[in-house]
Amino acid sequence: MENETILVAEDSPTEMRIVVSALEARGYRVVTAVDGEDAFAKATSLRPRLAVLDIVMPKMNGFQVLRKLKSSDDTKNIKVLLLSSKSSESDRFWGLKQGADEYITKPFESDALAAAVMRLL
Question: Residue 9 maps to which CATH number?
């Protein structure tokens, strides 16, 4: 679904560029956030269809943002894809148990990210 708005929250400038480039190349409109508080504020005000959240971020981590999004009537329907270097099975299990719709580990292939986004939208 091209032209959908996706929020990407990532504190690493390099990782941010990679994710944004992969999504914009496929026609998505991308809004960025550099920490968890910024991500939650933008998700609340913009109501994107999807939020791609890093887990390890300053101010509020991705798990905290996820829980806040899913516990609010205003944002509970935003799909959440966790994109993290935390690659253990327990991290994946915990992320999905917290309400994430998808969990992808870094490093990732752009096509795998795009396929996950398409499934969620």
Answer: 3.40.50.2300
